[in-house]
Design a protein that fits this description.
The complex is a heterodimer of chains A (481) and B (350).
Chain A lengths: L3 H20 L2 E8 L5 H13 L8 H4 L3 E6 L12 H8 L15 E9 L4 H6 L3 E8 L2 H4 L9 H11 L5 H14 L8 H19 L11 H4 L28 H24 L5 E6 L1 H7 L1 H15 L9 H6 L5 E6 L10 H11 L1 H9 L3 E6 L7 E7 L2 E8 L6 E2 L2 E2 L6 E4 L7 H5 L32 H9 L5
Chain B lengths: L14 H4 L12 E3 L4 E3 L26 H32 L1 H48 L2 H15 L6 H9 L7 H37 L3 H22 L6 H18 L4 H18 L1 H24 L12 H9 L1 H6 L3
Helix pairs in contact in B: 2-3, 3-4, 3-6, 3-8, 4-6, 5-6, 6-7, 6-10, 6-11, 7-10, 8-10, 9-10, 10-11
The chains are: A alpha/beta (481), B mainly alpha (350).
Chain lengths: 481, 350
């Protein structure tokens, strides 16, 4: 999917990275996840915990006191906004007003630098124990665009139509399909017609994303989260029914749509990928398995397909001096089932099993290329506590916290203020039946509000978390040499 | 802790609970509970339900089966004890016949001796039991690390806590360990944490013990006036090192325990010896080559020192309650480096 030019561009980038890396080593941490997977919360918690020396027992450099200082660097790239860490932190710790950060609408970036005691002669005499971590935050929807790099308009159009002519998508697409039938691909291009088609298509995508459906594979991402492209002609295209009428000539609607699509890929997707994802060192893939489980097997299958497609775009493999110079590769990936705090810890192993089954293809590919991989049930900010409730002779492993306003379980609707213990149902021991949707209706994961923070948010107190330290150790623990 | 004040109706059972659910009987319906009978949990290691893996077994040690030998020994020992008892009884009777005060003195002395013998036996038994505890901890830890087994990990942590309770040099590690007792951590990671916080600090001391012994052996062999004498020196120093190592890691072997440990070390060296090819090369180089050229005695001393370091390394593996998983194992080369700093350290008081 990458041409010669792109390869050369990446090699040049890697070469300059390697040169600056001698005096100022940097890890590009790819935080990958579809929308609502918890990227922003993960990044905020990660930065906060590292800055404040939080208790991360499994993250050895921190736990053994080797990290002397952590600070945020001035924004390195002047063209990009800085990750609004302070804003997100304020949102999370605002007493009774606390809430999860708003969904991300644009790209942002942050550089965190850690100073540590180097153990190696070379490190001590070049950079003196400084390690920067570059993190990029972005709307998860945009990630779905990456597979488009390899698709032509016709291929994309056919695949999209094939996908939404079956399964649950069909009912949501009915209105748009009806409109599609009236379009004539060979007719002369008309801006109004194109805009109308794009509008119908976008409405269909938005419907598929709603909570009760929770489908994931909904490219192009900018249709749902336009960012600064709102209203731009780049977004006025839609798939056409090319099977019925194979092609339109010059100046036709088909030609217009194709041109728009190609521009979209060239001016939106390509820069997004090459500027931010082509030269990653480490990657964490956040997957919101629980929301998909809430919605059922279609959502799970779709999530699996979407993530597998996205992950195929990354360069994965073992690291060598040559790859370090000419083509950076991701040599360690953590697959994290985020929001593990919505589940009692005795079910975490089962959650990890489901995650592994979901991403089996991607994990196999990564492992085959030699990268280290790990799967964890993780929660960057833990919003719940655990309890066991004895009811009618059975022990229910529950989690307790303050559910978000409007969340419901059965007939119970929560008001967002009072604490409740939730028994979310039993995850199956074997991931197979869960993926097949046999547990639909037997599981309900309720969203909780962020945990109330004690007033003494003093240094050495980070957010409560689940296995964030283990993920960190796996991702960057080996870089402190 | 605020009790949940609302949702009085939340206890309402789902209809699912009344009529048996079809087939998927194991799935319990999700429900929300504002429960009066709520039991808050301090989290412990998660209960693993992953695929079962066979438990890890300890490295095979040669344990000869000698039922007949034991029978012979038992018979002979019983007979000798009987004879000794008979002899002592007769002797005391004779003493009483001669003068009562003589008889009482003899009885008292015998009682003191008997008490001492009992104490020694008890100490040996306790020492052996503690060695066995170390062994069991190793097996459990290896199993927990390999298969993320919660039960084994729990046993390891409990064992470590009782092993190191009340020792000044492990107090810090134990308090660190208790600090994250309530976190959600995987069983295997708990063992790694215990190794890093509790056991790894002891490794430094173990390294010093080994280096010190190796250094002494080197010097003594070099200056020993007679070849037969340095065998005795080397053996005694090595046994002392074994006991010190075992004591450091929580065993308290008596004489029998130390001998047993020595046998295990020899077995372990036999098992792992083949792997240390490079070390052997170093040994050849120093013993026969460099040092040997300088002085034959010094060459022998160096070889004996390396041998001691190697025995110490094997004893370290055997007495350390956890395998090396979170921290790198000390290489023989590192130990040799410490041996090489003879002058500075040996003058320091112990």
């Amino acid at each position: 999917m990458t041409g010669l030019f792109d390869e050369a561009r990446m090699a040049f980038g890697s070469l300059s990275d390697a040169a600056t890396g001698l005096t100022h080593p940097t890890i590009r941490l790819g935080v990958t996840g579809l929308s609502r997977a918890g990227k922003t919360v993960f990044i905020t918690a990660l930065i906060h915990d590292l800055l404040h020396g939080a208790r991360l027992p499994l993250f050895t450099p921190m736990a053994t006191g080797r990290i002397a200082r952590a600070y945020l660097e001035p924004q390195p790239d002047d063209r990009l906004p800085r990750f609004a860490y302070e804003e997100h932190l304020a949102a999370l710790t605002a007493g009774d007003e606390r809430h999860w950060p708003q969904s991300t609408r644009r790209l942002s970036q942050l550089r965190l630098t850690l100073e540590y005691e180097p153990t190696r002669f070379f490190a001590r005499h070049t950079h003196g124990g400084r390690l920067s971590i570059d993190i990029v935050d972005y709307p998860g929807e945009w990630l779905l665009d990456l597979p488009l790099l390899a698709l032509s308009y016709e291929a994309w159009s056919t695949a999209t139509l094939a996908a939404n002519r079956k399964g649950p998508r069909k009912q949501f697409a009915a209105e748009w399909h009806a409109h599609l039938g009236t379009l004539d691909v060979a007719a002369p291009a008309d801006e109004a017609v194109a805009a109308e088609a794009a509008r119908m298509f976008t409405a269909y995508l938005a419907r598929c994303r709603a909570d009760d459906v929770s489908l994931s594979s909904l490219p192009p991402g900018r249709f749902l989260m336009p960012g600064d492209l709102d209203g731009s002609p780049l977004l006025t295209f839609a798939p056409l029914d090319l099977e019925a009428k194979p092609s339109g000539g010059r100046g036709s609607l088909h030609a217009l749509m194709r041109r728009r699509y190609d521009s979209y890929v060239a001016h939106v997707v390509r820069p997004f990928f090459f500027d931010h994802f082509a030269r990653l060192d480490r990657q964490i893939v956040l997957v919101d398995v629980l929301t998909a489980l809430n919605a059922g097997s279609e959502a799970l299958t779709d999530l699996s397909a979407a993530l597998t497609g996205v992950l195929e775009c990354f360069r994965v493999g073992t690291r060598s001096w040559a790859s370090q110079l000419f083509g950076r590769r991701i040599d360690a990936i953590v697959f994290a089932a985020s929001k593990a705090d919505l589940l009692h810890h005795s079910s975490h192993d089962r959650l990890e099993a489901i995650l592994e089954a979901l991403l089996a293809d991607a994990a196999e590919r990564a492992q085959f290329s030699g990268a280290r991989i790990d799967a964890v049930a993780m929660s960057a900010i833990r919003a719940t506590r655990e309890a066991v409730i004895r009811q009618k002779g059975e022990d229910l492993a529950c989690i307790a916290g303050v559910p978000e306003k409007g969340e419901r379980i059965g007939k119970e609707v929560f008001d967002g203020m009072s604490e409740a213990a939730i028994f979310p149902g039993d995850l199956p021991e074997d991931p197979g039946p869960a993926l097949a949707g046999e547990f639909e209706g037997h599981l309900k994961f309720v969203r909780f509000r962020p945990p109330p923070m004690k007033d003494d948010l003093s240094p050495h107190r980070g957010f409560p978390h689940i296995r964030l330290d283990r993920a960190l150790e796996f991702l960057i623990g080996d870089a402190f040499r | 802790m605020t009790k949940v004040p609302r949702q009085p109706r939340a206890f309402r059972l789902n209809p699912e609970d009344e009529k048996p659910p079809a087939q998927k009987s194991k799935a319990r319906k999700p429900r929300s509970l504002a429960a009066p009978r709520i039991e808050w949990q301090e989290e412990t290691a998660s209960e693993t339900q992953g695929p079962a893996r066979p438990p890890v077994r300890p490295a095979p040690l040669a344990r000869p089966r000698r039922r007949w030998g034991i029978l012979l020994a038992a018979g002979l020992a019983g007979f000798l004890a009987l004879a000794a008892g008979h002899w002592a009884y007769g002797l005391i009777e004779t003493f009483f016949a001669r003068a009562p005060w003589l008889g009482w003195t003899a009885t008292g002395l015998l009682a003191v001796a008997g008490f001492a013998a009992l104490s020694i036996t008890l100490r040996e038994v306790v020492g052996l039991a503690r060695l066995r505890t170390l062994e069991r901890l190793q097996t459990d830890a290896a199993h927990a690390l390999a298969s993320d087994d919660a039960a084994a990990s729990g046993r390891v942590l409990e064992g470590l806590k009782s092993l190191y309770a009340g020792r000044p040099d492990t107090a810090w590690g134990l308090s660190r360990l208790n600090e994250h007792a309530g976190d959600i951590i995987d069983p295997a990671d708990r063992v790694r944490l215990a190794e890093r916080d509790l056991v790894a600090p002891l490794d430094e001391e173990a390294r010093r013990i080994i280096a010190r012994s190796a250094r002494r052996v080197t010097l003594l062999t070099a200056v020993a006036p007679h070849a037969a004498l340095d065998i005795v020196f080397v053996a005694a120093l090595n046994l002392r090192m074994l006991r010190q190592l075992a004591e450091l890691y929580g065993g308290r072997p008596g004489t029998i325990g130390t001998v047993r440990l020595a046998r295990m070390v020899i077995g372990h060296l036999a098992v792992t010896g083949g792997l240390a090819l490079s070390d052997t090369l170093v040994q050849q180089l120093i013993g026969k080559g460099l040092a040997g050229r300088l002085s034959a005695r010094f060459g022998e001393g160096a070889v004996n020192g390396i041998l001691t370091a190697r025995i110490g390394r094997a004893a370290l593996d055997l007495t350390r309650p956890l395998p090396f998983a979170a921290t790198p194992p000390p290489a023989l080369v590192d130990l040799m480096r410490e041996v090489a700093t003879i002058a500075a350290a040996d003058q320091a008081p112990e």
